[in-house]
Amino acid sequence: MKVFGRNSKDAKVDQGKDQSPARKLTRAEIGTAQRHLLFYINKRRSGWFWAVVCIIAAALTSLAALSFIAPLLRSLNEKTASQELTLNYLLIMVGLTILGTLLLWLGRAVMARLAQDMVVDIRADYYAALMRQTPAFYRRREVGELVAVGMNDSEAIGAFFTSEVPYALFSVARVVVSLGFMASFSYQLALGSVLAVAVVQGLVIAIILPLIQRLAAKHQQELASVNSELGENLSNVRDIQVFTQEERTTNEFRRQLLKLAGYVTRNMNLTAITVAAAYFLNILGPAASIGVGILLVLSGDLKAEAVISFSAYITQFVGPILTLNETAVRVQSLYIAAHRLFGVMDIPPDIQDKPGAVDPGPLRGHIKFENVAFSYEPNDPTAWRVKNINLEILPGEKVAFVGGSGSGKSTLLYLALRFYDVTEGRVTIDGYDVRDLQLQALRRNFGVVAQNAGLFQGTVADNIRFGKPEADLNAVKAAAGIGYVTEFIEKLDRGYETALGEMGQGLSGGQKQRVVIARAALTKPSILILDEATSALDTQSEAIVMKSLKKLGEGRTTLAIAHRMNTIVDSDKIVLMTADAEGHGVIKAVGKHDELLEKSDLYYTLYSTKAA
């Protein structure tokens, strides 16, 4: 189900406008949203079918009860009424009403459960779609907005099918059945009622609903922006406090909230017009039908009891118009939410398995960069990151990448992991072009220890076994020994079962890194990537972590980016990178530490300034 995607690297801020256009959706966009919704409905179509049957049956039985009004009045007018006959009629009417109520409850309960199942399916698929995306996708989009779309818009879809759909179906059934009964009493009155409703509703649909849809789109867009700003400010609350910007950011957030509230108010004002139109019909309908009916009685074209019965059904015919008006308003928000949500899900990942991609199994770690060039946007000269990269890394070698910011060090590691594909040339591992390998099979051969320890809520053991959930406690403890986790684990309240907070809260920076090292050790990777793994640590913690990394790297190809030069002096190979005159990352020199100190002034300067 692919609809549209974007590739511009500069779309980080305005991407939200693509997913929530502040305009009326086109027919094609509405059609796409409908197809996605039908896909999820069809997954449980038998349940939806019986829920609809119950709701329609509820309307039929409830309105059938009113059909006994005319016989009762006729028997009274013709002097044939009896206490027994009247009581029987009343019992039937009460029974039909109770049955209709039970059927409506059953249909609505089933539909509510189905709607929540739909929300679960949509959110799970949305999460899976995000997990398939590459870093390039997240460069173009704000995480806070993606979270808002996934949770808020799916909740809006679930709420619509839980609350709106059952009553809309019930209302439509009431309108259709009531119209049938009305026509049986007087087709003239029925036709007049339909024309009156058609005129009023036509005006509402043609004028009001498009305006409501535009406002709904703006509201969803602004809501996502508010959620994004709130998440960003909470993530940076310490900086806000340090620079004493609490009042300013609060005022800015309040201005956004007022703008959001303005969209809601304008939407409600337009909705009030649709409600007023339905109320107008609800009051005028019965009064007009009785007045015209009396004229028909006086002319001999209609019986008096038919007028009374007709007036009872005209209320059932016009009353649901109010519900349908409100549903018509809310369906605009449904389409906007579906468009935003499925629009994200439909974006194809930049990196996918090619047809016939192979699983190489465990790799030895023989890596080659052959005439590699990479750009985020090949047609934009300023977007090129690296050019003319030729480098061979032998199995088991420890290779360090050093250089200034923006020289392309991390880019090369991303290319090896295939978070990005090369623009020119190729990257091979053990002779395989990485583009010919299954993504998961390729990445199972890598272990990564980065500057920011990526820990999750859960126990220490859960975090160690994250890459291998089936590992038993003995395997966890063995990996913990490699990461020197055992040196502090006994000091925790519950040892390996100690619960950690968000991002590993409860552990120090050095302890977090050791847990990450243990996690990498458990998966037994062929290739180890160290992305400034110790740059955020103090000297004492760095010493322990370096000892852990040395133990982890034994017998493995290791690619390291280091901020502190003293941590890479014993590398088998050091790759010095720099930016050329055009800003492209290139390899300036390759060699051991002593060799580069002797032959490269740039390396000497870099080492002298960063060794400490």
Parts with pLDDT < 50 across at least 5 consecutive residues: 1-20
Name the helicity range. 55-70%
Number of helices: 20
- The largest beta-sheet arranges its strands as 6-9-10-3-11-12
Q: What is the terminal separation in angstroms?
A: 54 Å
Radius of gyration: 34 Å
**Major sheet: size, sense and barrel closure?**
6 strands, mixed
Mean pLDDT: 81
Count of DSSP strands: 12
Strand content: 5-15%
Counting copies of identical and different chains, the oligomeric state is: single chain
Keyword list:
six-stranded mixed beta sheet, disordered N terminus, 612 residues, 12 strands, alpha/beta, four-stranded antiparallel beta sheet, 61% helix
Describe the structure.
- With 612 residues, this protein is an alpha/beta fold.
- It is 61% helix and 11% strand.
- It is built from 20 helices and 12 strands.
- Helix 2 crosses helix 11 and helix 7 (143-185) packs antiparallel against helix 11.
- It starts with 14 loop residues before the first helix and ends with a helix.
- Residues 1-20 have low confidence and may be disordered.
